[in-house]
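Review form for a predicted model. The reviewer records the input and the model, then writes brief findings.
Reviewer: anonymous (R2)
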Amino acid sequence: MNKANNSISEKHKIAGLVKKINRPSFVLMAFSSIGMLACHYYWGIFTPYNYLTAKQDILNNKIQIIDTGPPNPLEQKVATSMGFQMIHVSCTKGRPFYNGIKHYNNVMHEAIKQKSGSDWQERFDSTLKSLITESTSQKVMEKK
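Model under review:
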C-alpha cells in the first residue's frame, strides 16, 4: 500500500512539474499565434504582396504598383514610361490580401517618389487622362 501511495504521489509530482513547464510555453505559443494572425490580417504578412516583399522587390530593382481593378493598357503604357510596372491581380482574395497590397503599394509609392519626384502621381494621372481623352476622340472620329 505504501508503495502504491508513493507511485501515485510521484505521478502527481511529475504531472505538476509538466504543467509548470508547459504553461509558459503554452502562453508563449498562444501570444505568438495571436501576433501572427494579427500580422496576417492587418499587414498581409503571409500574402504575396506586403511590406516585406515590397522592400525585397525594391532591392531587386523591381518597382511595380499592384492594382485590383481591371487592366488598362494605357495605365501600363504611362507606368512603363515612368519606370515602373502596373500589375493587376484578382480581386477575390480577402481582407488580408488587400491589406498586404495597401502596404506594398505604400512602400512602392515612396520608392517611385524618390526616383521620379514628389509630383509623380500628378504627372501619371494627367498623362493617363490625356491618353484616355486622345483615345476616346480617336474612337469618335473612327465612328464618323
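Findings: The mean pLDDT is 80.
Further findings: The chain has five helices and two strands.
Recommendation: see findings above.
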